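Q: I have 221 residues here and want to know how they pack in 3D. Can you give me a structure?
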Amino acid sequence: MSERDVRHKLSVIKEPKARLKYLDHIRRKEKLLEPSTRRAVNLLYGEAAGQVVGQESLAAEAYIKSGMKKEDAYFRAAESAERNADLLRVGTYDPDTREFYRSAALDYKQTGTKKGLIKAAGAYEKAGSFIEAANAYKKAGMTDKEISDTIEEHRKRKFRSKLETTAATSSIISLLGGIFFLSSNLTGNVIGNMTNSTSNWIGGILFAVGLIGAFVYFKKK
């Protein structure tokens, strides 16, 4: 089987887990493959593993087998794990994604570089593991004050991001509410026991609040 055959088969398999399963089957026969095909299969396996949540740790091993440098292999696997966790994340520290961030942090640490340690610390922060984040920052050569300032700044940035998201959501709800109440005047329908005048007042206020919120949000962006 050639690299071209493998890529052609993958082109018709869209589901990430199915692609991973197929490539795993091919890898079991790697001794029968040409060296160039073997390298390509391992690279493709690493890419597929990086797209399946919980399987990112397999990606680094496959990347290394494809001939990729260890540092690059672990960076790539870690970035896949962190990206998947970001896509899945719900709430502050969703327990379903915490372990994925920790997995990413471990892969970053495996790179053995200062950059990897700093990225690992960031992943630990996303997992809510601030002690481990501080330890990673310290191993990267940061002072206690720099560590404290960095973590505090990241917390503030995250809080601001949540406020902006809340403000954007509130603006949309206000605009829609305003349109809803103002529409009664256009259609002639009465909302509850409200008069058209009351409905217009409420609609106007909600619409204005929504516009102000949207203006402030986009101005900050």
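Q: Anything worth noting?
A: The mean pLDDT is 80. Residues 163-220 form one domain.
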